[in-house]
């Protein structure tokens, strides 16, 4: 046995640590299951080195306590009740995502489309985007941010080298599945296969609002700004007026998705998100105010008015979005025409049958029968 909890000698772990691109990979982290006396444990049964394939080289190791792993809007392993840290181990073959001590999936490089990093006061973040989802890895704030940036670039390099993969993740041998396989995420390609559509709409921007949309919803336009003001129907009092409140994104931009059925607004907060859904059937008017820098969409409903700030996209595309909203309002408020599928005209074939019965009974002469039959046959 090597260091506490390891089933492999210390020598291979030291060699792997020495060959790693980042200083975050150490022999101790590869070969221990237990944390320090005050820290959280790594894994419940085996150390990380036992999860590696033969010849697999780890390059970056990141962890955080109590935050878990996030795929789309689903978080696993977060909360103070967990006794284990969440781990991300980036190797030359795959990205190992591990939480709760015994749950782990490997993200395939062939599925990766983009990455994004963020540095905060108490934690950092590495977001990995695939065609189907955004995977968020939270990282302890004391981690060297330069190494997080280097890891992000490394993931993109490996993704460029890998062939395309139709599968995002595979369960790590010896561990349990992280995310429920029955969870149906929204297909990016299907959601963006629509016309008209603004040039500002991209896969990466769509993924930032995908969690507030329905599975079959189509996205025509996206806006990005800092605030949305809600006015009327008990919105509350604020510095911006009575019965008017301002919602600001404390954890990112305020985004509005203009879809085939509504305007959906996402205001990311430190604890969750403030979401607003405005169906076109509820909107009575839409206006656009353009300034030197910012634009503002104003949606009027019977109860409330929404003032949506839009830094992006440009004025021309926002005008297109306004025209699209007006068109959808008109369609949503058109009176429904109920067509009566039952014809008031009698069936000619039924009439022919009755006509023959009358002729057979001698009620109609041959000439009368032939004349009326000819008339009915013209209707068949």
Automatic annotation (TrEMBL):
Residues 350-377 form the SHOCT domain. Residues 52-147, 213-326 form the YokE-like PH domain. It holds the Pfam family SHOCT. Residues 1-28 are annotated as: Disordered. This is SHOCT domain-containing protein.
């Amino acid at each position: 046995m090597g260091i506490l909890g390891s089933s492999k000698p210390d020598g291979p772990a030291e060699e792997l640590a020495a060959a790693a691109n980042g200083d975050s990979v150490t022999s101790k982290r590869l070969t221990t299951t237990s944390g320090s006396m005050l820290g959280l444990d790594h894994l419940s049964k085996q150390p990380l080195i036992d999860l590696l394939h033969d010849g697999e080289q780890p390059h970056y190791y990141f962890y955080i306590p109590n935050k878990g792993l996030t795929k789309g809007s689903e978080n696993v392993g977060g909360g103070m009740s967990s006794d284990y840290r969440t781990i991300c181990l980036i190797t030359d073959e795959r990205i190992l995502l591990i939480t709760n001590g015994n749950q782990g999936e490997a993200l395939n490089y062939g599925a990766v489309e983009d990455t994004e990093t963020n540095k905060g006061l108490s934690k950092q973040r590495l977001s990995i985007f695939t065609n189907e989802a955004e995977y968020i890895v939270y990282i302890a704030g004391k981690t060297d941010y330069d190494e997080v940036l280097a890891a992000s670039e490394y993931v993109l390099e490996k993704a460029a080298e890998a062939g395309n993969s139709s599968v995002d993740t595979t369960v790590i041998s010896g561990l349990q599945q992280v995310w429920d396989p029955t969870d149906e995420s929204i297909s990016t390609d299907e959601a963006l296969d629509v016309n008209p559509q603004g040039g500002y709409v991209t896969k990466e921007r769509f993924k930032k609002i995908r969690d507030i949309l329905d599975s079959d919803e189509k996205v025509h336009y996206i806006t990005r700004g800092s605030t949305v003001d809600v006015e009327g129907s008990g919105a509350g009092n604020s510095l911006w007026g009575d019965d008017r409140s301002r919602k600001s994104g404390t954890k990112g931009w305020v985004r509005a998705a203009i879809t085939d059925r509504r305007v959906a607004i996402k205001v990311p907060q430190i604890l969750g998100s403030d979401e607003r859904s405005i169906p076109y059937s509820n909107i009575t008017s839409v206006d656009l105010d353009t300034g030197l820098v910012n634009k503002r969409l104003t949606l009027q409903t019977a109860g409330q008015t929404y003032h949506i700030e839009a830094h992006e996209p440009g004025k021309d595309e926002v005008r297109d979005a306004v025209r699209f909203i007006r068109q959808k309002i008109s369609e949503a408020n058109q009176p429904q025409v109920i067509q009566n599928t039952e014809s008031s005209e009698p069936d000619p074939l039924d009439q022919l049958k009755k006509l023959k019965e009358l002729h057979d009974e001698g009620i109609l002469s041959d000439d009368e029968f032939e004349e009326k039959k000819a008339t009915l046959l013209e209707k068949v």
